[in-house]
Amino acid sequence: QYCFFSANVVHETMDSGPLQVVSIPTAPYPDQRPGTSGLRKKVCVFQTRRNYLHNFVQSVFSSIDLRDRQGSTMVVGGDGRFFNQTAIEVIVQMAAANGVGRLIIGHHGIMSTPAISCVIRKYKAIGGIILTASHNPGGPEGDFGIKFNTANGGPAQEAVTNKIFQISRSIEEFAICPGLHVDLTTLGRQTFDLENKFKPFTVEIVDSVDSYANLVRNIFDFAALKELLSGENHISIRIDAMHGVAGPYVRRIFCEELGCPANSAINCVPLEDFGGQHPDPNLTYAADLVDSMKDGKYDFGAAFDGDGDRSMILGKHGFFVNPCDSVAVIADNIFCIPYFQQTGVRGFARSMPTSAAIDRVAKAAKIELYETPTGWKFFGNLMDAGKLSLCGEESFGTGGDHIREKDGLWAVLAWLSVLAARRQSVEDILKDHWLKYGRNYFTRYDYENVDVDVACWMMADLESVICEKSFIKQRFAVEDKIFQVEKADSFEYTDPVDSSITRHQVPDTH
């Protein structure tokens, strides 16, 4: 268990003499291509393959020009899963050896993905390294992941991840300061003198919640939310952090600041194996929360994934809010959030697999709607260009332009802001929305541990079927209903900001 309270200290280590920086020979691995969520592998891969972690970390640092790297600030944190602290020590030692001037690290190495994006932007860091495999299982037999976010606070663009991959395929050595050891348990600054030409290296251990809490206070009306959650006619809520990184944020913001009873928040202690559970906020893996909602004791429920960037919303009696409908409802009630009253709304967006529910809201409001490939970096590009304010995806990710990552806790606060303004139940708000706009039905199927070759063959066969001209206007009978294909394509995206083209997406059918 982790304690998130400690005194601030300044810890100087320079009196023992400069620490040695060394170069270690290594050999490349062919499988270190970062995906949309970084490099994810089983923990045993990082533990048993010699220098596997070191190679990838060096590839990240080498992808940044030395002139930008020297004396720069970077942010490091993770979801607290197994191997998190081991990896942080390696990253610290290698950051020092590669000329980084300052690292900002979450207390105990823990910081949510949205908070890391917030801190990168707040301190104008050149980027951050996030240690998470999101909703994947943790523990020694589970998964581990490492992701690089750039200076805008968002996931690295494809040009950067391609560069990291190319470096990883030809790497011959990495730089490290093996004698450098950081204390992650104590808040404050630690300074190290290195045996190289760079200035003293500084590590700052920061409260994982502070910067993020300050950010959301300036987005939402906390007085109205406190009245909703702990006032005279307050609603009852149930929040499940699923033993992921969101726990300390939930306790600080919902319980301490907004006045929810302590027992409103469950599973709030981050654990290396997430309590043996799958930290995925859906009806299957958050079944305990769903069951606890069924008797009507709670008016609102939510669950978060391992790194806190995704959330599931439930109403009374376990009424499930589809993520596609969730972002559409927030869009339709966006001016319940003071932040958007001040900034206005620049645009809405959804990922290609997400239903078109938000499209209907955008059309009615005469607001631009963007359909992007999967991956938050595409939303980030639009936000940086001032084209986008709110976005979401079917995999329980929703966010605004306050940071450059999806944000589970932000989405919950957004929903509570709607409830505070409308004083209706979650179910009534959804039913009113469907009456106003119609209802988009959507389903998603996840297949795990399948044969890669067979899966690729199946997708190729599916693509050939739906791309046939004769497929359009075909009719399909399901029980007593007839459905007709209106559109089917292999999705391709031309970025309106930089004109880059993304092809070979999952087939898209309406």
TrEMBL record:
Name of the featured protein: Phosphoglucomutase 1
**Protein family:** Belongs to the phosphohexose mutase family.
Q: Where does it sit, as one GO cellular component term?
A: cytosol
Asked if the record carries the keyword Metal-binding, the reply is yes
Keywords of the record: Magnesium, Metal-binding, Phosphoprotein
GO MF annotation: an example:
magnesium ion binding
Pfam families reported for this sequence: PGM1_C_vert_fung (PF24947), PGM_PMM_I (PF02878), PGM_PMM_II (PF02879), PGM_PMM_III (PF02880)
Q: Where is the Alpha-D-phosphohexomutase alpha/beta/alpha domain?
A: 32-173, 211-316, 343-437
Asked if Metal-binding is a keyword of the record, the answer is yes
Which Gene Ontology BP annotations are present? carbohydrate metabolic process
The protein's matches in InterPro entries, at most eight in alphabetical order, are given as: A-D-PHexomutase_a/b/a-I, A-D-PHexomutase_a/b/a-I/II/III, A-D-PHexomutase_a/b/a-II, A-D-PHexomutase_a/b/a-III, A-D-PHexomutase_C_sf, A-D-PHexomutase_CS, Alpha-D-phosphohexomutase_SF, PGM
